[in-house]
Amino acid sequence: MGVPTFLETGHMADGFPIRLIYTGAEFNYAAHWHDEVELVVVNGNHARIGVNEQMFELNQGDMILIKPGDVHYFMPGTGRLTILLFRLELLTGSFTSEAEMQELGTLFNQTSIIPCSSQFNPSPYIDAIATEIKNQKPGYRWLMVSRLYDLIVLLLRTAPPAPHKDTPSCWPCVSSKKFEFLESVCEYLEEHYAEPIKLEQVAEHMKFSKFHICKLFKEIKGITLMEYLNHFRIIKSEWALLFRQESILEIAISHGFNNVNSYNRLFKKYNNCTPSEFRKRHRSNITKYQG
């Protein structure tokens, strides 16, 4: 499988809203996002996980809870992980009160680090989910959902209060139609990122006005359409720097930049280093691309 695009779909088996993944001893995976929550537990000695513009250095036992829609990636040098994916649709229903929705919204509207020293220990619940997947006895999916509920209650009771942020909430409730719109825009951007894309082209493709597209995109993603496109170009280029032999200029041009100066400037904005420095710093950790 090649380097994945930002938007990841079709990765939940049979459409079931829970998936459990155990990675190998050495793991790396390119930038992507999806509308599931992702809980990552570090089982190896170390993990280097990027989320949006931040890089997190995690140690054994640490966890990261990644909110739906956040772009994330696993850098070379990351050890063994357990990854639990689940859809927030499991938590909605007529029995859920407004106060409970607010609690869940506070928990899942931000990406957060859960240090190893905290009281939160997801292992019994994750192990129980893994056992049900393995044995597949009658009613195993119901029991998987039940153990996930236990895990979420533990999160609610042990997670520190979330700081207030002036960012748009992804849950509860970005409508499915808005997510479909977002997916369509992102798929177009990711297909044409190497070209000099203009807002007019996106608007024509989507059959919407530029104003409407920009407003909706910012509302859902919290960044502008062009910021998303440029971030996508930069992260695609990061993997080219690590796994291909082209020059910096060749990589810049093939990733939608007119010249190497604009590429270097934007790359440094996101990574606090130049492309050359990035390549030297991270290539020593490379084993084999897994994706």
From TrEMBL:
Keyword DNA-binding included in the entry's annotation: yes
Keywords, alphabetical: DNA-binding, Transcription, Transcription regulation
Pfam families xref list: AraC_binding, HTH_18
Domain HTH araC/xylS-type per the UniProt entry, residue ranges: 183-281
This protein's record includes keyword Transcription regulation: yes
One of the record's GO molecular function terms: DNA-binding transcription factor activity
Signal sequence region: none
InterPro entries the record matches: AraC-bd, Homeodomain-like_sf, HTH-like, HTH_AraC, HTH_AraC-typ_CS, RmlC-like_jellyroll
UniProt-recorded name of the protein: AraC family transcriptional regulator
Source species: Paenibacillus amylolyticus
